Structure to design on (179 residues):
């Protein structure tokens, strides 16, 4: 899990510095999710194994897309829910991962609250999604992770419905008319 999170963080740094295209980022995030395949339970099908890196790629991008609304705050809410669920279900191995990320986000929020002194950028928001998806597959709490990511899924669906699939360079700030 830590290797996946580290690789996703490196991709986030590259995206922050070099501005990767959507296709490049999706492909690199897919590659970053491949090491998680070795943690898959035995006797699963090839489709399940392929779904792991795909889920890492999609989950990371979902949290990145909603980052403008304060990605660390929503990450805290999501990881708090996921942590409590893992504790209730007795999944203590992934609870440690979830609590570690939750603690880091709470400390980060101190400097990220209004007026923000620092921002997570793609590095931080991609890592939040990768952590949630990694916990889902390792801890076998995929349904809970799906529920936790519902605000991100709804946001992505609304963006695709209203604007369609766009490259990052096509997005422009909202302009107000003087009339």
């Amino acid at each position: 899990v830590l290797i996946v999170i580290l690789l996703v963080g490196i991709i986030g740094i590259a995206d922050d510095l070099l501005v990767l295209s959507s296709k490049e980022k999706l492909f690199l995030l897919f590659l970053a999710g491949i090491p998680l395949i070795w943690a898959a339970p035995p006797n699963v099908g090839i489709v399940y194994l392929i779904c792991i890196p795909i889920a890492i790629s999609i989950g990371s991008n979902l949290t990145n897309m909603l980052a403008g609304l304060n990605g660390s705050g929503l990450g805290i809410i999501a990881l708090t829910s996921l942590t409590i669920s893992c504790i209730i279900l007795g999944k203590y191995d992934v609870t440690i991962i979830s609590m570690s990320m939750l603690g880091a986000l709470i400390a980060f929020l101190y400097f990220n609250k209004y007026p923000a002194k620092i921002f997570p950028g793609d590095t931080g928001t991609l890592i939040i999604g990768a952590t949630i998806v990694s916990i889902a597959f390792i801890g076998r709490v995929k349904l809970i992770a799906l529920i936790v990511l519902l605000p991100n899924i709804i946001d992505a669906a609304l963006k695709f419905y209203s604007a369609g699939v766009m490259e990052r360079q096509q997005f422009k700030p909202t302009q107000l008319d003087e009339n």
Notes: DSSP finds eight helices and no strands in the chain.
